[in-house]
Design goal:
The protein has about 90 residues and is mainly alpha-helical. The protein contains 3 helices and no strands. Helix content is about 85%, strand content about 0%.
Length: about 90
């Protein structure tokens, strides 16, 4: 039951992220990717417990893409801050 709830929460997070970016309410930034990351993890947990491997794999990849995007955003921010100090 708890894993089903996690799956539903994950689905809502991903849909909210998509709706927000599609309507220009948020930018392609940390919030967008954080929603996708958390949504992917939550859905992935629910799918894993059900043994739905093809969808579970999709959520792992979805989450990894979000992590990579967040790292790139943070690295750019760090580079800008370091550049401003010199």
């Amino acid at each position: 039951m708890i894993f089903d709830v996690l799956g539903w929460i994950g689905m809502i997070l991903v849909l909210v992220a998509y709706a927000l970016i599609s309507t220009n309410k948020i930018k392609n930034g940390k919030l967008y990717h954080a929603l996708n990351l958390l949504g992917g993890i939550c859905m992935g947990i629910g799918l894993f417990t059900r043994g739905v491997w093809f969808s579970f794999t999709l959520q792992i990849v979805w989450s990894l893409v979000a992590v990579i995007a967040i790292i790139k955003i943070l690295n750019k921010k760090g580079e800008k801050e370091n550049g401003a100090k010199h």
